[in-house]
Design brief:
The complex is a heterodimer of chains A (about 120) and B (about 110). Chain A is mainly beta and about 120 residues long. Chain A has strands spanning about 5, 10-15, 20-25, 30-35, 45-50, 55, 65-70, 75-80, 90-95, 105, 110-115. In chain A, the strands form two sheets. In chain A, strands 2, 4, 5, 6, 9, 10 and 11 form a seven-stranded mixed β-sheet that branches. A four-stranded antiparallel β-sheet of chain A has the order 1-3-8-7, with no helix packed on it. Chain B is mainly beta. Chain B has strands at about 5, 10-15, 20-25, 35-40, 45-50, 55-60, 60-65, 70-75, 85-90, 100-105, 105-110. Classes of the chains: A mainly beta (about 120), B mainly beta (about 110). At the A-B interface, β5, β9 and β10 of A face β5 of B.
Chain lengths: ~120, ~110
């Protein structure tokens, strides 16, 4: 069974440019997460979706970050405009959701470098 | 506000030795404590998890010890192998779920052959 798929794996952009990351979760996983991982730090939740509904976006910087999960499957995370401090790894994860136990399945991440 | 504090930041252990990583938490509502393992260029993957109704859980060479009164839990890796070299994250959440997992800052473990 395929795991969580993310693209692109690496992205280098100039500051003030837009960037978008795509995530395809494990089939059947209703819950999808976007995490931010700064160098040498643990993942920090940006947004959580239950199906197509964003149920927790309290940590998402909404002035420049946006996300969507159309049809409750794939998701896209966008940054516009990017700032130097956005350089990090953006991790997508999925889980079965509902009352299931808390195993998160992570993708390999999208590493963003803002110059 | 860091809800889960992890130590040490880095650890070097000889092959065959015991690796010990510690975590402390503040929120007494936490009731699910997983450990994730992350290799370079990969996403974290669940290694082992514990709930506070038990004080210890063992899976192969990996053991979680949990001290509810001290609000601490630790990961022990017995007979550490070079393949165990990775970054380890403790985490905690409420309602046994993944929905609000809070991660520690990570420990970079190196096992010398």
């Amino acid at each position: 069974e395929a795991g969580v798929v993310q693209s692109p794996r690496y992205k280098i952009i100039e500051k003030k440019q837009p960037v978008a990351f795509w995530c395809n979760p494990i089939s059947g996983h209703n819950t999808l997460y976007w995490y931010l991982q700064n160098l040498g730090q643990g993942p920090e939740l940006l947004i959580r979706y239950e199906n197509e509904e964003a149920v927790d976006d309290s940590q998402l910087p909404k002035d420049r970050f946006s996300a969507e999960r159309l049809k409750g499957v794939d998701s896209t995370l966008k940054i516009q405009p990017a700032e130097l401090g956005d350089s990090a790894v953006y991790l997508c994860a999925s889980s079965l959701g509902g009352g299931n136990t808390g195993e998160l399945f992570f993708g390999e991440g999208s590493r963003l470098t803002v110059l | 506000q860091q809800q889960v504090k992890q130590s040490p930041q880095s650890l070097i252990v000889q092959k065959g030795g015991i690796s010990i990583i510690n975590c402390a938490y503040e929120n007494t509502a936490f009731d699910y404590f997983p450990w994730y393992q992350q290799f370079p260029g990969k996403g974290p993957a669940l290694l082992i998890a514990i709930r506070p109704d038990v004080s210890e859980k063992k899976e192969g060479r990996f053991t979680i010890s949990f001290n509810k009164s001290a609000k601490q839990f630790s990961l022990h890796i017995m007979d550490s192998q070079p393949g165990d070299s990775a970054t380890y994250f403790c985490a905690a959440s409420i309602n046994w779920g993944a929905q609000k997992l809070v991660f520690g800052q990570g420990t970079r473990l190196t096992i010398n052959p």
